[in-house]
Specification:
It comes from Cohnella silvisoli. This protein is an alpha+beta fold. It is built from twelve helices and ten strands. Strands 2-1-10-5-6 form a five-stranded mixed beta sheet. Strands 3, 4, 7, 8 and 9 form a five-stranded antiparallel beta sheet that branches.
Length: 424
């Protein structure tokens, strides 16, 4: 005997329930991945599993949309006289489909041009800013204790005998409904408005800050999104004297905004103690202090900067020392095969092959758009590898080592690809 197929109403209820749980966990995992306060906590081997869970749930959300489509026509017919429900359904479908499509682009980022990823990230963020508060509001205002009808007092007219016939009055047999005067706002409305106001106060400042810059990270309003570096904040004196092309900001300056992503405590630097070293399998190992490092010959280039999370900053004017020049000056031993980079935070490392390291645009940079690089963005010195995603461009660079075997970098240990080429 075959099982009876669930009814239309039960199917809708099941899809709604599963969608609710999936969206809830998507919101939590998305927050964990993007919230700077918890990025450090996830910096170990937890980050990649959380990311994979987020992707799997996004795919399952798409499956639920697919399962709902055959029911959609009947559902719309059922609620055709209910404009609020139709509006809610339309908004939720836009959210889910928008999240799904933009999420696919971000998930398969290497198969799309950077412009696509940049747009997808903005759409994904915008839908999150609009969708998560709405879903919280929608969910809380529909829990059982808010949906109970208002209690109304019932007053029964007292039985009074007719003074003439001594018979019970008709009023004695009639129950007249009685209620207190209706207030201008009931409990449910008050709670809904209060919740809406609380969400607005909590979220609006961050949302408008994001909207102003079309990004969701910690950024500044300076050109290119770089914070200005004052002598006090920099701690690295003297400031580099920029070359003429860097002063003129070739290309007109950076287009876009940097997001600040850090998974380790921001290191501090002082020119009195800072040093830069190149050693390992080289003929002439060397160490420079800050003033000696600034005396090295520098060049200027214009290149794009792409983050594997989806955002890009275009037409950056970088000034620094070509990595190939540093390697040539050091002299490489015959068994040197890879170039290992060390970050001043004492944690972050990565590698390039010799062929990659000798590309013309790979640079050890000290200036961005004619200004010192702020610590929040990897200064005072950082690696720039324009043709690869930015996790290869090691921040706070203070040491280069030539090695004979490949090294698994910080992000590669956590699931990122060693092959980090950008699809341009």
């Amino acid at each position: 005997m075959s099982k009876r197929k669930p009814g239309f109403g039960k199917q809708l209820a099941e899809l709604h329930r599963w969608n609710g749980w999936i969206v809830l966990i998507l919101a939590i995992t998305g927050l964990l991945l993007s919230w700077e306060t918890v990025r450090g906590w996830l910096s170990g081997h937890f980050r990649n599993p959380v990311k994979q869970l987020h992707i799997i749930l996004g795919i399952l959300s798409g499956v639920l949309i697919f399962l709902y489509l055959p029911l959609m026509k009947r559902h719309l017919k059922q609620i055709r006289q209910r404009p609020k429900q139709k509006g809610n359904l339309s908004f939720v479908m836009v959210l889910l489909i928008g999240w799904l499509l933009s999420g696919i682009v971000l998930w398969q980022i290497r198969k799309f041009p950077p412009e696509w990823a940049n747009g997808a990230l903005i759409v994904h963020d915008l839908l999150t800013w609009a969708g998560v508060p709405y879903i919280i509001y929608h969910s809380v205002t529909r829990i059982k204790w808010m949906k109970k009808p208002e209690r109304r007092a019932i007053k029964t007219t007292d039985a009074i005998d007719d003074p003439i016939t001594q018979a019970p009055s008709v009023a004695a047999h009639t129950k007249v409904p009685y209620s207190e005067p209706t207030p201008w706002i009931n409990r449910r409305q008050f709670l809904r408005w209060s919740l809406g106001a609380a969400l607005t106060v909590a979220i609006a400042p961050s949302f408008f800050r994001w909207l102003t810059t079309a990004t969701g990270g910690t950024i500044s309003t300076a050109p290119g999104g770089m914070k200005d570096v004052s002598d006090a904040a920099n701690g690295m004196l003297p400031n580099p004297t920029p070359l003429p092309d860097s002063v003129n900001v070739v290309g007109g300056g950076a287009k876009g905004y940097f997001r600040v992503y850090t998974v380790t405590p921001l290191p501090t630097f002082d020119s009195k103690t800072w040093s830069f070293t190149i050693n390992g399998l080289v003929d002439k190992p060397a160490t420079w202090n800050w003033e000696q490092f600034l005396a090295l010959s520098r060049t200027v280039q214009v290149s794009d900067f792409h983050c594997v999370t989806g955002w890009s900053v275009y037409k950056n004017t970088w000034e620094g020392i070509p990595l190939s020049a540093l390697l040539k000056q050091a002299g490489l031993k015959s068994n040197a095969k890879f170039v290992k980079f060390y970050s001043g935070d004492g944690v972050y490392t990565d590698t390039l092959t010799l062929e990659q390291a000798n590309m013309d645009d790979v640079m050890v940079a000290v200036l961005h758009d004619g200004k010192p690089i702020h610590r929040d963005y990897g200064g005072p010195v950082r690696l720039i590898v324009p043709k690869m995603y930015a996790y290869k461009s090691v921040k706070w660079l203070d040491r280069i080592e030539l090695i004979d075997k490949d090294h698994i970098g910080y992000w590669e240990e956590r699931g990122y690809d060693t092959d980090a080429w950008v699809n341009t």
